[in-house]
């Protein structure tokens, strides 16, 4: 996963402002030190977000020579720290490392394209049936259609692949029944009848 703090840095209100990484944290004293040497101590607590705002003295910020590069707030600069900030910092270091960037490139090539194809061509954005085990059937049908197209492309080129895609779409677009209980008729027939699948796909079998 990409580090959003990097993609959002220097944009909007944070433009030309010191990032949080410019503030040094002292775990023993539980405080931050800003680029100008001022101390930020714990202030407001956010229980739902499990984080704490570390704030500098307003007077120190008002008289600071680096104020224009540090904050636009009238009350001074603050830094938000999560209760598990150490874990977040370790994850950021991993995702910004060489191995993390390589994994994202691999994910983009192997997974993102497949998901986009499933969403655009095979209805992956919408669940056709209720309950998780029925959704798994839809996912497998979509994967099967994608695999058939890949095999057709390797065997006979793009023409056969296009024909295979066109042949696979009706199976997903017009599946018999709604895979749920009938709204106006009996459970064993008619519109909305329950369509059963192989027992291997059902929970507990």
Q: What would your notes on this structure say?
A:
The protein is α+β, with helices and mostly antiparallel strands. It folds into 2 domains: 4-95, no CATH class; 99-201, no CATH class. Helices cover 43% and strands 12% of the residues. It has 7 helices and 5 strands; from the N terminus they run H-E-E-E-E-H-H-E-H-H-H-H. Strands 1-2-3-4-5 form a 5-stranded antiparallel sheet. A hairpin with a 5-residue loop joins strand 2 and strand 3 (39-46). The chain is elongated. Residues 176-205 have low confidence and may be disordered.
Beta strand count: 5
The secondary-structure element order is: HEEEEHHEHHHH
Q: Give the overall form.
A: elongated
Mean pLDDT: 76
How many domains make up the coordinates?
2
Q: Main beta sheet: strand number and arrangement?
A: 5 strands, antiparallel
Classify the helix fraction into a percent range: 40-55%
- Read across the widest sheet, the strand sequence of neighbours is 1-2-3-4-5
State Rg: 27 Å
Unreliable spans = 176-205
Helix-strand category: alpha+beta
Calculate the terminal CA-CA distance, rounded to whole Å.
36 Å
Helix count, DSSP H or I runs of 4 or more residues: 7
Q: How big a fraction of the residues is strand?
A: 5-15%
What would you say about this model in short?
The chain is of the alpha+beta class and 205 residues long. It has helices at residues 4-7, 58-62, 67-70, 85-95, 98-121, 132-156, 158-173; strands spanning 24-26, 31-33, 39-46, 51-55, 78-82.
List the helices and strands and how they pair.
Layout: H1 4-7, E1 24-26, E2 31-33, E3 39-46, E4 51-55, H2 58-62, H3 67-70, E5 78-82, H4 85-95, H5 98-121, H6 132-156, H7 158-173
Helix pairs in contact: 6-7
